Amino acid sequence: MSEEVQKKRWYVVQAFSGFEGRVQKTLIEHIKLNEMEEHFGEILVPTEEVVEMRAGQKRASSRKFFPGYVLVEMTMNDASWHLVKNTDRVMGFIGGTKERPAPISQKEVDNIMDRLKASVDSPRPRTLFEPGQIVRVTDGPFADFGGTVEEVDYDKSRLKVSVSIFGRATPVDLEFSQVEKD
User: Fold this and answer.
1) Distance CA 106, CA 76 (A)
2) What is the pTM of this model?
């Protein structure tokens, strides 16, 4: 059994976009039905928690960070390959050849797992801003003004934006929901 565990590697499976969760559930059911649990480990649809401001309130939701893909930890053999390949809404494996898929590297797996863990520890904002980025104000007294992001505070979901008023750059403190990327 320990020899089997060592042979399990992570593979990327392409699924119909929007059906990643269904593919995950179907794979788990087929594995149990065919009594192939020893050939499979985890089956993941990598998602991250994101926070957005709506109507002045923070709302948390999850977002897939690899839309259209499912990660499968498995021992690659003919039976396991056919089980995954013949699952509804699976388009195939990514990497390698059509008959012999290649696993992703352990470094890539570690990066994905770190990102999953970081997402649970501290949700990310839905929209990311960077200093120097051009934005347009959509709400408040400066609506329809353009500006440049000077500072970003993700903890408070606020930005300091330099807006040109009467030909002078004026720093304005805004919420994420009050601006959009230009």
Assistant:
1) 16
2) 0.66
